[in-house]
Specification:
This protein is an alpha+beta fold. It is 51% helix and 15% strand. It has 13 helices and 10 strands.
């Protein structure tokens, strides 16, 4: 068992850290958070250097590396700025579906749109009444003659107002079970009937675009249907195996960033005539924060590595996401606590990390869903016997 990174991975991690520290300036972070603006120029720079196309195969213009290398980049970006980091790295969100299930024509068109034309992708599954309950999707993708007609509403969609195309999940037919009959379609934002409205006043990740998407009589041909109609639910479950470790890496980065700010602060902040780092309570909290971060990091790396070698373990991806997300919230909370009143105001970056951390327990499946995935894997024989 070797816990060392390869020389190439070390270089990737170092390059990601240098890029984030140089490009995510304090002024830009504050502006994007305050104005909820999308940092398009930085997104393009990250794309040009290959950070956001790390997993796209080389034959389509990407770096052709793995989820593990993506996790390394993600951690470094989020360590500096979760919001701008998310805008940069989520600019290719949904391409995993194309890589896994798209045909050659779809890959050639849409992956190259990203790698050669600064295209931005999105994926839309969540609806007003279908979040954790994916099988409750109501959007319709119905065949009419030679075309597929799409109608419905999606919400909380990353990149919704800035994307060039989005992979939407809809219902093609009602099967024996609720999760049967779901299909993914590729919709271009310039198509007639597509409308996206920015969701404002989010708690965190305010530099990242989030939107409601309304599709009204959008028409596409067979060439825009991903894989086999009716198999969308299964495609989505495989997608989550690859994206949940990435969210775990986001959480590790958030926790690390908040921790480093706190470590520096407790060494400088004095109370009762000495730095608060000299007090045993502070020392214990620093030890607890550092240990949880390292545990979350190792679990995240294991889950990402498992996917990278093609031996997916859904329960491991869920463990990483749940534990790392909880760690981010825990560390960010204590970061604010140890900053005292200063941690509660926007002049100190821990306030932003505190707000950004919570989303890692929500998107790509809430922490409750992750626990269900883990438990059902551990208790499969019992649940099968009793019909759950």
């Amino acid at each position: 068992m070797d816990f060392k990174l390869t020389p190439e991975q070390i270089d990737i991690k170092k390059a990601a850290r240098e890029f984030a520290e140089n490009e995510f300036s304090p002024e830009l972070m504050e502006e994007c958070d305050r104005e909820e603006g999308y940092p398009m120029e930085v997104v393009k720079k990250a794309r040009d250097l290959g950070f956001s196309t790390i997993k796209i195969p080389e034959e389509y213009g990407g770096m052709g590396l793995t989820l593990f290398e993506e996790a390394l980049i993600t951690e470094e970006f989020y360590r500096v700025s979760p919001g701008i980091g998310n805008a940069c790295l989520s600019s290719t969100f949904g391409t995993e579906l194309l890589i896994l299930f798209g045909n050659e024509e779809q890959k050639e068109k849409y992956l190259r749109w990203i790698t050669e034309k600064h295209g931005i992708s999105a994926m839309a599954t969540t609806e007003p009444e279908a979040g954790s309950d994916v099988a409750n999707v109501k959007m319709k993708i119905v065949k009419e003659g030679d075309e597929w007609v799409i109608n419905g509403v999606k919400t909380f969609i990353t990149n919704g107002t800035v994307c060039d195309f989005v992979l939407v999940l809809g219902r093609t037919y009602d099967g024996e079970k609720r999760h049967h009959g779901l299909t993914f379609a590729i919709i271009e934002s310039k198509m007639k009937g597509f409308k996206a409205t920015k969701i404002k006043n989010k708690l965190g990740l305010r530099a990242s675009d989030t939107a409601e998407i309304v599709l009204k009589d959008v028409r596409v041909g067979d060439e825009n249907i991903l894989g086999e109609p009716g198999k969308g639910f299964y495609y989505l479950m495989e997608f989550f195996n690859h994206t949940r470790p990435r969210v775990a890496a986001q959480a590790v980065g958030i926790a690390q960033g908040a921790f480093e700010l706190t470590l520096n602060y407790v060494k400088e902040r004095k109370q009762f005539g000495k730095p608060i780092a000299a007090f045993q309570h502070t020392q214990f909290k620093i030890a607890e924060m550092a240990t949880r971060i390292q545990a979350a990091r190792l679990l995240t790396y294991q889950a990402a590595w498992q996917c990278s070698i093609g031996e997916r373990k859904p329960e491991l991806s869920s463990m990483a996401k749940w534990f790392a997300g909880e760690t981010a919230v825990y560390v960010a909370d204590w970061a604010v606590q140890l900053h005292g009143g200063y941690g509660y105001v926007g002049d100190y970056a821990v306030e932003r990390f505190y707000r950004d951390a919570k989303i890692t327990e929500l998107y790509e499946g809430t922490k409750e869903i992750q626990k269900l995935v883990i438990a059902r894997t551990m208790l499969r024989d019992v649940l099968k016997k009793y019909g759950d």
